[in-house]
Design goal:
This protein is of the alpha+beta class. It has 2 domains: 172 residues, no CATH class; 154 residues, Sulfite Oxidase, Chain A, domain 2. It is built from 7 helices and 13 strands. Strands 3, 6, 7, 10, 11 and 12 form a 6-stranded mixed beta sheet that branches.
Length: 337
Amino acid sequence: MSPSARVTNLTLAGALLLVFATGAGAVATGSPGGRWVPVAHGVAGMAVILLIPWKSRVVRAGLRRARHSRSASLALAALALAALLTGVLHATGLVRSAGGLLVLWLHIAVALALLPLLAWHVVVRRARPRRRDLSRRTLLRTGLLGAASAGLYLGAGSAAGLARLPGPRRRFTGSYETGSFNPAAMPDTIWLNDAVPSVDAGRWRLVVADGAGSYVLTLADLAGFDARLRATLDCTSGWFARQDWTGVPVGALLRSTGLARSLLVGSSTGYQVRLPVSDADRLLLATAAGGVPLSPGHGFPLRLVAPGRRGFWWVKWVDRIELRPEPWWLQPPFPLR
C-alpha cells in the first residue's frame, strides 16, 4: 500500500470512528448543553464526503487486483454511500420518509449494518500508522480537512435555508416539530418492541417504594394532583413536540430518599429506566397532556415526563417508581428492556 493510500485510509477510518461515536451521542443527547454532539456528527459526515475522491483512487487501484473479498468491499462502499445519502436527506428535510419508513430510521439501520463490514475491512485491509505519518504536513492536511468539513456543513445548512427546506428549522437534536400543543397529532412512537397494553383504570395501581417503605396509589388518588409542566418530548425517531403536561411531581410521592442513589421507573410492559435521585423534583408523572387525559398510545394512565432527556427516558404506562441503592449510571445509554 502506498503512503498516500495508507494516509487516506487512516484518515477515513478516523472520520468514520468520529461519525459513529457522535451518531450514538446524538441519539442520546437531549439537553442544549449537548448540542455540539449532533453538530460534530454532521461535520464528521462532511469529512467523509470530502474524502471520497481520494478514497475512490484507492478503490480503483484495489479493483485492478483480483480478490475473493471484492463483493464484501463493494457492499461496504454501497452501505457507506447509502448512510451518507440518507443522512443528508434527513438533515435537509428534502425527503423525510421512503416506503413508509422514516429516512432517519433508514440512516440508523444502514449505519448499523455497516459496522460489521467496516470492522471486517479494518482487519483484512489493515493500514498500520507509521511514525512518519504524524508529520507537520499530515497535521496541516488534517486541519484543512476539518476546516473544510465545518465550512461545508455550514454551507449546506445555509443552502437548505435559502431553498426553504425544512432542515434548518430542526431542533438542535436534528428532530422535526410534530404535534406541539396538540397531543392528538403527536406520534405515539414506542421504544423497541413494546406494544400498547390494555389498562383497566379501575384496577390499575402505582407502587411507590421509597426510603420509608412501599405504598400504593390509585388513579383517583393521583387525580388530586394538578401540577403543570411545559416540556419538550424529543423522540429518537426524529420528531419533537412541546406539550403542557399535568400530573404529580415525582418528588411529591417520595416521603424519604434515605441512602438511595437512583430512582427506577418501571412500566407495566417491563420497560424501565434508572435516573439520579437528584432529578426527582424535576420529573413529573403525567396523567394528561394539553388538558386532555393521556391516550393509550401516549401512556395512559401515567407516563414519565423527563425534561432535557430524549423520548426513550419518558416511560409510558408507569406502574412503579422505586428508590434503589445502585448508582444511576448503571442505566445503559439505550435501555434494552
